[in-house]
Here is the input.
Amino acid sequence: FDATDAANPWRIATKDAGSFTSTTETPLTSIETGNGYWVHTDNFETQLVALTGAVGPGSGTPPAVVTIATAEGWNFIGVVDPSRAKTTGAESTFTTSDKYFSSVNQQRVFTYDANVPNFSQKAGSDSLSTGQGVWVFISKQSDGSLPDIVPPAE
Here is the structure.
């Protein structure tokens, strides 16, 4: 989901026999840091995603500052740890909703639990975890701007 593309925010791809095919006018061609991805599956099979670049703190060059572009209204984003210290295999809970969205004027934050299944609203002091998909409603700042989300490095 790309909220910055108001005309075509959804990207849809299917996987059949190990091959991905995009089925939308604006194709899904890559998985990118900071975007949210809604995955439909008939079971709870792990979906492997090949990522490139340094895989942890101290490996290779320091990670670039991560920013996530926003649009007015609902945005579906992926929670990332810019330091890369809290990723798969490490403790992933690293910040609160208020800290994660401190650079934007956010009004409502929801996560989805497929085990329930249910959306749950996050309070400002509720924890967010690396890899979690989050729906956040963002409104313009008092000056009319829509700044990027700048995840905190904790």
Observations:
- The helical segments are 97-100.
- Strands lie at 13-16, 19-22, 73-78, 93-96, 105-113, 118-121, 127-129, 133-139.
- The first helix runs from residue 97 to 100.
